[in-house]
Amino acid sequence: MTERILVAYATRYGSTAEVAEAIGEELRRSGADVDVMPVSEVRDLSPYRAAVIGSPIYMGKWLPEPQVFIEKNQNHLRTIPVAYFAVGLTVTDRSPEILRKAEASMDAVRMLVNPVEVGIFPGRLESGGLSFTDRTIIKMIRAKTGDFRDVQVVRAWAQAVCRKFMAA
Ligand SMILES: Cc1cc2nc3c(=O)[nH]c(=O)nc-3n(C[C@H](O)[C@H](O)[C@H](O)COP(=O)(O)O)c2cc1C
């Protein structure tokens, strides 16, 4: 039987969705059937042998949807291998302190379901298209804008996840 893997994500402006798609494509290369979808659309976890769940970081935290999803489905998720990823802008700086802070965005979900792997990837921030509130915040904190995603790094991480899923 073909293995089926879920890649579920939350996103506000689309960049995390594209990271999730790249992860899904890489997992498919291993021969698995992979469903990539917003976490809000996942209705049934029973077909999946493993799951990757990710969120962008906003104000130091994951978006609420994936956290609620993990909380609701924690019993099932504890029975399969799970990997988490976070996408944020601060982590263009790979210093240990910055990475630790970004990792802390996953503390709550790690306490619910222990992942076999976590990834933290630089994201994308464009001032056009942001909500008024988000635009105001990024002006206030003088956040840098641009697309800092590195698909090669994301794909290499997905390969490592795949190996862990197979070993689990
Ligand atoms: C209002 C606002 C707050 C943000 N807060 C953080 C943060 O605390 N840490 C971080 O690393 N990135 C932060 N970011 C950057 C986003 O995580 C980044 O742009 C991400 O790629 C957005 O993902 P999305 O396009 O899937 O929504 C913030 C962006 C905005 C607009």
Automatic annotation (TrEMBL):
<feature type="domain" description="Flavodoxin-like">
    <location>
        <begin position="5"/>
        <end position="168"/>
    </location>
</feature>
<dbReference type="GO" id="GO:0010181">
    <property type="term" value="F:FMN binding"/>
</dbReference>
<dbReference type="GO" id="GO:0006783">
    <property type="term" value="P:heme biosynthetic process"/>
</dbReference>
<dbReference type="GO" id="GO:0070819">
    <property type="term" value="F:menaquinone-dependent protoporphyrinogen oxidase activity"/>
</dbReference>
<protein>
    <submittedName>
        <fullName>Flavodoxin</fullName>
    </submittedName>
</protein>
<dbReference type="Pfam" id="PF12724">
    <property type="entry name" value="Flavodoxin_5"/>
</dbReference>
<dbReference type="InterPro" id="IPR029039">
    <property type="entry name" value="Flavoprotein-like_sf"/>
</dbReference>
<dbReference type="InterPro" id="IPR008254">
    <property type="entry name" value="Flavodoxin/NO_synth"/>
</dbReference>
<dbReference type="InterPro" id="IPR052200">
    <property type="entry name" value="Protoporphyrinogen_IX_DH"/>
</dbReference>
<dbReference type="InterPro" id="IPR026816">
    <property type="entry name" value="Flavodoxin_dom"/>
</dbReference>
